[in-house]
Specification:
By secondary structure, the chain is mainly alpha-helical. Helix content is 53%, strand content 4%. It has one domain. The protein has a two-stranded antiparallel ribbon with strand order 1-2. The chain is globular, with a radius of gyration of 16 Å.
């Protein structure tokens, strides 16, 4: 599905404002190694949102581990893959040890 299709769905079916959808589009188009994290950290809108800030702190920690284990050069983040995560089923059971 193209971004234009996703945008149309978000505006027409979900009722989101087009300006909001355009901002989401800026985020989901981010790809790469550390570049997406750097760009997201520089976004003042995200920095003012507590859940987004917490997520960025988690990503920062993850990237520090990737650096320590020297696998960062082999990692590429694609934020467009996050679309639809809110519709995944959530299990309340814990995995077996």
């Amino acid at each position: 599905m193209s971004w234009d299709d996703v945008k149309r769905e978000m505006v027409a079916e979900k009722g989101l404002d087009e300006a909001v959808v355009d901002k989401i589009g800026e985020y989901v188009k981010l790809k790469g190694g550390e570049e997406p994290l750097t760009q997201l950290q520089a976004d003042t809108l995200l920095a003012s949102h507590s859940l987004a800030s917490a997520g960025l702190k988690d990503m920062t920690l993850l990237f520090s581990y990737l650096r320590v284990f020297n696998i960062l050069p082999r990692i590429s983040f694609d934020l467009s893959l996050a679309r639809g995560l809110d519709s995944l089923p959530v299990s309340s059971t814990k995995p077996s040890p």
